[in-house]
Amino acid sequence: MKSISVVRNVLEANDRIAEQNRALFDENGLFVINLMSSPGAGKTTLLEKTIDALRGEMEIGVIEGDVQSSHDAERIAHKDIDVVQINTGGACHLDGNMIRDTFDAFDFKRLNLLIVENVGNLVCPAEFKVGEDVKVMILSVTEGEDKPVKYPLMFRESTVLLINKTDLLPYLDCKVEDIRREALKINPDMTIFEVSCKTGEGLEAWFGWLRDRVKKE
Amino acid sequence: MKSISVVRNVLEANDRIAEQNRALFDENGLFVINLMSSPGAGKTTLLEKTIDALRGEMEIGVIEGDVQSSHDAERIAHKDIDVVQINTGGACHLDGNMIRDTFDAFDFKRLNLLIVENVGNLVCPAEFKVGEDVKVMILSVTEGEDKPVKYPLMFRESTVLLINKTDLLPYLDCKVEDIRREALKINPDMTIFEVSCKTGEGLEAWFGWLRDRVKKE
Question: Which residues of A touch B72 (CB under 8 A)?
């Protein structure tokens, strides 16, 4: 059982670092989101739409996590937003240490909202806190309604589920009510938004949820 | 750099077990596929279609890997095929040991083709051999053309790429030629099939590829 105790120690060590990150974020009145999903579910597009909608009301910073490439950070940099790219170099999730290593690049006093886009992966990111206030996950309707039962930890850990790509529903066998029901079975407290980041449908409710939580001084 | 050496040892230990698995598969004339993709890209549906098409020509066995649930194994069991479900209980990939633990459940002498459906994850499964002859990956067109550059290891390791859900292309901004070009940049030797597991379009070429490789005695 040696490997299991190693994993537990790694998680406990990470929890301590994440708590320190969180304390620093709290001092600065910063609301922090750990944004997670499978590859290609629409995290970066959601970020682009969210920045476009809220940039006049609050100061937003972004941390982009990817195994490799700076593709996503370049997309966000076009929005003239403070963004840092983390390349995990093989690791399938972000952890507290990686987030701490970005601190020099931000002026947290100036920011109201920090969104951490995790590595595209429905498994491990849910295990590693980074110092977030809440975990938010995206599921694309193309992924199917069996994902909550097959990847329960992420659904259990997430405060918000955005069901994305609803514009594709007419062309799929998957029903959004089935995703909703299966997700609520795993986590009855989840706040669920049905959205299309492509058409913008449903995003206003997500923006409203954010507005209610981000302190603007 | 302690953590890196731990990871290296784990991978080396796994490689040795995978080689032993492979030797046993070879003795039994079994062709073994390690099937990988993001969650919801269509691995289980591809399996169902492949079993339906080839069951009269060869004996097929399946190992289903999931973090949790026996949903996929139940789908395959409906096909009256030998199938074993592995629940990794948190681990985001299968490894050689987990595969070895299923051996009692199979009569390998009777089988010609064993397909191992890995945990839905575009990162870690590519690092852990299970004893396969080839790695085959699926990418859904809904995931976008930036996946090869963001998740290069899996594209580099895979002999075959199935680009799935082509029936959705009319409703997406993503172009299949862009996925193809980006994938070949990472791995110029990849064999690529464009398929729709829903409509069946393009699957005949995949079945033909399998027929050419599986020994039937």
Answer: 150
Instruction: Give ∠ CA B207-B212-B213 in degrees, rounded to 5.
Output: 100
For A14-37, the pLDDT digits (tens) are 999 999 999 999 999 999 999 999
Residue B43 sits at the chain A interface (C-beta within 8 Å)? no
Q: Is A40 on the interface with B (CB under 8 A)?
A: yes
- Return the residue of A nearest to B125 by Cα: A92
Residue in A17, A140, A151, A167 to test binding to B, most B beta-carbons within 10 Å = A151
Q: How far is Cα of residue A121 from the mean position of the Cα atoms in its chain?
A: 11
E runs forming strands in A129-168: 134-140, 160-164
Helix-helix angle A203-213:A43-54, to 10 degrees: 70
> Encoding tokens for residue B119?
């945990």
Question: Residue B174: which of B136, B193, B146 has the closest Cα?
Answer: B146
- The ipTM assigned to this model is 0.89
Q: Where are the alpha helices (DSSP H) in chain A?
A: 2-27, 43-54, 71-77, 96-100, 147-150, 152-157, 176-186, 203-213
B177 by Cβ neighbours in 10 Å (0-12 / 13-18 / 19+) ranks as exposed
DSSP state of A132: -
Is B151 at the interface with chain A, CB within 8 A? Answer: yes
Please give the domain boundaries of chain B with CATH numbers for all domains. 2-213 (3.40.50.300)
**Main-chain dihedrals φ then ψ at residue B35, nearest 5 degrees:** -100, 120
Q: Is B142 on the interface with A (CB under 8 A)?
A: yes
CB of A68 within 8 Å of a chain B CB? The answer is yes
Query: Which residue of chain A comes nearest to B90, CA vs CA?
Result: A123
What is the value of pTM for the model shown? 0.93
A127-155: per-residue pLDDT in tens?
Answer: 999 999 999 999 999 999 999 999 999 99
